[in-house]
Amino acid sequence: MSAKNILRKKVRSKSASLSPKELGKKSRLIAKKLFGDKLFIEADHIFFYVSSPKEVDTRRMIARSLKLGKKVSVPKADTRKKCLTFYEIKNRCKDLKKGAYGIMEPIARRARLVRVKAAD
How far apart are CA 78 and CA 100, in angstroms? Predict the structure, then answer.
């Protein structure tokens, strides 16, 4: 097993052990730090992953970032090439659907393909 897979397994195990209340508290703490960070405040284009229910909730952070006028991009898995591509979304609810591995991903025809270098 690769180091990346070992780390991924550890993180999943730790987050799965958190109660919904603890996960919500951690999500709010991370959001507070993010939105108060000078780099975030000055950034125009932010890249997020779209969280699943057992992860830190990025969905609210995405919605708030869009409301603040930030450009927001999220990954889409290319299972054939085994890589990620990133798309800028405008609406968290309308521009995403369940994709590879059951993870919410951008709908390519509704979103704009972007290069990773576009992120602040």
Answer: 8
- For the chain, counts of helices (H) and of strands (E): 4, 6
pTM of the model: 0.84
Q: 73-77 long-range contacts, Cβ below 8 Å, gap at least 24?
A: 73/45, 73/46, 73/47, 73/48, 73/114, 73/118, 73/119, 74/47, 74/48, 74/49, 74/50, 74/105, 74/106, 75/47, 75/49, 75/105, 76/100, 76/105, 76/106, 76/108, 77/101, 77/103, 77/105
Among residues 68, 49, 65, which one has the least CA distance to residue 57? 49
Distance CA 18, CA 26 (A): 10
H runs (alpha helix) in the chain: 3-16, 20-36, 38-42, 59-67
* Per-residue model confidence (pLDDT) at position 9: 79
